[in-house]
Amino acid sequence: MSVIEVTNLTKYYGKSRGIVDVSFTEEEGEIFGFIGPNGAGKSTTIRLLLSLIHPTSGSARIFGKDVTTHGPEIRRDIGYLPSEVFYYEGMKVIDLLKYSASFFDCDCIQRMHELSETMELDLNRRISDLSYGNKKKVGIVQGLLHSPKLLFLDEPTAGLDPLMQRKFFDLIRAENARGVTVFFSSHILGEVQRLCTRVGIIREGKIVEISNIRALQQNNYKKISVAAERLTPAAFEMPGVTNVQVEDGTLRFFFKGDINAVLQKVGAIQVTDVTIEEPTLEEIFMHYYE
């Protein structure tokens, strides 16, 4: 069953483009990644799905209901972590979370304490005393405390240290294992690859690809650097090599294809260093989607 169904969803802010003809579906129990550079339209899409803003044209349905006409009803079963969190600075964390819980028809106190313990969040501190990362933890607990069926995460790991990011990912996997559908928006490809089974890629307000994450990884470019004496571009003239640059004895290029072919070339020369890494999303867009 499709939890989210988006059909030709379009939003203009006056003459400025938000998103244009965006269409996709997300199935129940799925962790769907939604990635693109900053300004691509990720947050606009989420706000439209939450009916915080209304579309210029097109439609979206959640739990089979139109998001514009059934917004309040739908939102009872949705958790939302925005990319930026803003709170009443003078409140204590526990009072803020109790206030949030009061909007839902459930006893959320035990769950609030469990989530706060998992995220190492001090409930007795004032919001004004919290770092950006700790305010993000408040947002995570707030988004999950009413046990939603559908969870929207918009750039959720910004401000979290690596250890806390790992705890957060474990928490989201545990939520998904108990049946929660997750819509995960990020501009960091590695995060999406760790968590999601399927991914939609948005660029300049339009969907450029919807793909199984494994297919995306297999079809992607690798960014390769090879350092060796007297190295020339001719050493790696082969199908799949693009964007070759030589600087200070290091050859850098993008490669798409069987990585073993590159490793054979590397093995034939005396190298001082080799690096193979994932390109950034911006680099993928530049070299893959144009």
Describe the structure.
The structure is a single chain. With 290 residues, the chain is α/β, with parallel strands linked by helices. The protein folds into two domains: 2-217, P-loop containing nucleotide triphosphate hydrolases (Rossmann fold, 3-Layer(aba) Sandwich); 220-288, 2-Layer Sandwich (Alpha-Beta Plaits). 32% of the residues lie in helices and 32% in strands.
Brief descriptors of the model:
2 domains; 4-stranded antiparallel β-sheet; Rossmann fold; 10 helices; alpha/beta; globular
Q: Tell me the helix content.
A: 25-40%
Structural class: alpha/beta
The CATH fourth-level homologous superfamily of the largest domain: P-loop containing nucleotide triphosphate hydrolases
Q: How would a textbook summarize the main sheet?
A: 6 strands, mixed
Low-confidence stretches: none
- How many strand elements? 14
Please state the overall shape, judged from the principal axes of the Cα atoms.
globular
Q: In percent, how much strand structure appears in the residues?
A: 25-35%
CATH class of the largest domain: Alpha Beta
Query: How large, in whole angstroms, is the Cα Rg?
Result: 22 Å
What's the order of the H and E elements? Answer: EEEHEEHEHHHEHEHEEHEEEHEH
State the end-to-end CA separation.
Answer: 34 Å
Under CATH, the topology of the largest domain can be stated as Rossmann fold
The CATH architecture of the largest domain is 3-Layer(aba) Sandwich
Helix count, DSSP H or I runs of 4 or more residues: 10
Structural domain count = 2
Strand order of the largest sheet: 6-7-8-3-9-10
Mean pLDDT across all amino acids: 90
